[in-house]
Amino acid sequence: MTLTDMRVIVRRDLHDEDDANYRWSNDEIDRQIAHALSDFSEALPLEQKATIATVSDSREIDISSVTDRVRVEAVEYPIAQFPHRHQRFSLWSDIVTLLGSEIPDGSDCYIYYGKLHTLDADTSTIPAQYEDLVALGATGYALVEWSAYSVDRVSVGGSITPVYALSWGKDRLYQFTSELKRLGRHNRLRVKSLYKPYYPPYSKTTDFGP
Predict the structure, then answer these.
(1) Could you tell me if 74 and 28 lie in one domain?
(2) Closest C-alpha to 69, from 54, 49, 99
(3) In principle, which of 18, 56, 63, 140 could form an S-S bond with 106, CB 3.0–4.6 Å?
(4) Whether residue 107 sits in one domain with residue 62
(5) pLDDT, tens digit, for every residue of 124-165?
(6) How far is CA 178 from CA 39, 41, 136, 186, in A?
(7) How many domains does the chain have?
(8) Cα-based distances in Å from 171 to 140, 141, 164
């Protein structure tokens, strides 16, 4: 799968395959694909592990070299232990601070994190089973945008009226976001079964008192 392949799928789903009279330009299609890909990455990011040197006698670890990250899932220190030693930590900007009793000695640590997926002219990191899901989101965004742009700009209904495009787009986005929520919940449960979260649970409805 490449960006060109994804564009073909999106156009097919939008019934916009007449290359002599495209309703959406390639740039517009690519922008909506990028939008859907960003949403997908938030729910199910690309799993990565980075090796970063700590600073002796400092709990702070600079992870600015870990680019395009969506979130940090776990910090392993010291490494090469069994079972793995995952540390409690806090994150502010590009600085991870270890909160446990372990104080680094300058040796390496492992940062487990989720990264934005890539989809370009040559490569894709989207798992094959989710390619249609990203296309679904892209078509939804394209339809909603087109419906807003087309209001008061057309005098006849044609094959896709603004009202129909808006309804169709909202339906596809509802399917897309519902599936992302399901995948996100599944992913968080799997991660939390492996790593202790660095943040405490927060309730919007329960008052635990002072």
Answers:
(1) no
(2) 49
(3) 56
(4) yes
(5) 999 999 999 999 999 999 999 988 776 555 444 456 677 888
(6) 12, 15, 12, 13
(7) 2
(8) 8, 11, 11
